[in-house]
Amino acid sequence: ALQLCWLRNDLRLSDNHALWHAREQGPVVVVCLLCPTTWQEHADAPIKMDFWLRNLASLSHDLQALNIPLRVLEVPDWQDAPEALLQLADEIGSNGLHFNDEYGIHEQQRDDAVAATFERAGRSCQRYTDQLLFEPGSLLTQAGSMFKVYSQFRRLAYRELHRSCPPCLPRIAAQDQAPCASDPVPTELADFRASDSQRALWPAGEAAAAERLSLFCEQIMADYDAQRDRPDVDGTSRLSAYLTGGVLSVRQCLHAALTCNQGEFDSGQAGAVSWINELLWREFYKHILVCYPRVSRHRAFRPEMDAVPWRNDPAGLQAWQHGKTGFPILDAAMRQLLATGWMHNRLRMLSAMFLTKNLLIDWREGERWFMQHLIDGDLAANNGGWQWSASTGTDAAPYFRIFNPLTQSERFDPQGDFIRQWLPELAGLTGKQIHQPIKADLFNAIDYPAAIVDLKQTRQRALETFKSLGDSA
Ligand code: FAD
């Protein structure tokens, strides 16, 4: 019988559980929904949705070669999904729907509503774990609860991976049926546009993702452990956007790393081990999202931290958002984000810590701003990263460990090359001056703002605020 496979953030033909199992059961029609109202409500960045659409166009092309039709339906809101999918199933005469699980309260509500609608109509609906190595809730402490500490979660994850490592499923095969037309994929959507130069940075499609993964494994992974904190070096995989859109799976990443490391997870080449560790952080935050639903509701992971008296400082927030803090490393980082949709991990931490500690501005403001601009915007990882930096999360940085952007700048961008790339107005400064230009600029000749805060004073303010909270909690 004809199977309907609903793809979302899993736009690939290889190692795709829903698509593979649907195809095993008969000829398949693939469906995707365009939901601009929901995307806007979730603050999804234009560059991210433009990338998703370009990946969909590439998938459509690949599906055509396999004689698998793609239907593209526009339903403004996820609430309209159950009806739209059931109607399509009726129209094409399909009895079964397949999709891969997605995480977050809204995603789960949407999927439960679709499953219930199909069930009521006497249709089957099959769901798969695909985005993760382990189903959330399947790795628990001995007491049966979700871990709150990453290293403990990782220990169990390693044990399970040693016992049985999830394999990659093969790419699906062509189907032998009368050719049937696919719906066109729009080349762009209003409110979700990216510039040509942004598009050029992120080539779409499964083949492009596979190419970047090979390049990373062959040329970058060996030095990953040593270079991963250096924004001035191309030292990380830059695969996050492909993982977020599901153009690449975590299993494909894991197996590529294992191949480079003689099949070892937690020993052998430091680069591979360290990279697998990051894939497990991704896993951890998604498990946290499911097991602690308050995180999905924009609440602090540690409930007592919802009482932090965050400052209302529109001018400070604006300066941070637009790269005008007067701290070159932070401003360069923000310009990188606004121009490319991506920011280096070390800078995401620095930037988040500055907003939540030195400016004492609510982490949710920063979380939203990042989401509105990241091409890899992912609720679990973004929320996890923000709550870590704000000391409100699992495993969070202790409140008294506050990064100093100047010393971090000297340490991780030692020649200032990263700063120079994004702040050309400082290109003339040499040596250490680049990290703190105001000290060098005796005659105010450089068009660059003065630092908006005194690091020492604001650090002290944050320490007192967080300490008093700890005392009263
Ligand atoms: P690599 O270093 O090559 O790592 C490989 C993969 O592991 C990444 O692609 C990503 O999927 C995963 N990963 C790496 N670090 C983390 C981490 N700390 N948490 C979860 N997964 C991780 N990552 C996102 O994918 N989406 C986000 O919206 C996001 N927001 C963040 C916000 C803040 C404040 C912080 C501190 C971190 C955030 N991260 C986010 C995590 C991390 O910064 C990015 O995954 C990483 O920079 C992506 O670059 P890469 O692909 O080169 O990573």
UniProtKB/TrEMBL annotation:
Chain positions of site Electron transfer via tryptophanyl radical: 310, 363, 386
The UniProt record lists the keyword Lyase: yes
Cited function: Involved in repair of UV radiation-induced DNA damage. Catalyzes the light-dependent monomerization (300-600 nm) of cyclobutyl pyrimidine dimers (in cis-syn configuration), which are formed between adjacent bases on the same DNA strand upon exposure to ultraviolet radiation.
Cofactor: (6R)-5,10-methylene-5,6,7,8-tetrahydrofolate; FAD
Any one of the GO BP annotations: response to light stimulus
EC number(s) stated in the UniProt entry for this protein: 4.1.99.3
Entry similarity comment: Belongs to the DNA photolyase class-1 family. Belongs to the DNA photolyase family.
Catalysed reaction, written as an equation: cyclobutadipyrimidine (in DNA) = 2 pyrimidine residues (in DNA)
Binding site for FAD: 224, 236-240, 275, 278-285, 376-378
Molecular-function GO terms, alphabetical: deoxyribodipyrimidine photo-lyase activity; DNA binding; FAD binding
InterPro entries named among the record's database cross-references: Crypto/Photolyase_FAD-like_sf, Crypto/Photolyase_N_sf, Cryptochr/Photolyase_FAD-bd, Cryptochrome/DNA_photolyase_1, DNA_photolyase_1_CS_C, DNA_photolyase_N, Rossmann-like_a/b/a_fold
Keyword field: Chromophore, FAD, Flavoprotein, Lyase
Root EC class: lyase
Presence of keyword DNA-binding: no
Domain Photolyase/cryptochrome alpha/beta: 1-133
One Pfam family cited in the UniProt record for this chain: FAD_binding_7
PROSITE patterns: DNA_PHOTOLYASES_1_1, PHR_CRY_ALPHA_BETA
Manner of cofactor binding, per the entry note: Binds 1 FAD per subunit.
This protein's name: Deoxyribodipyrimidine photo-lyase
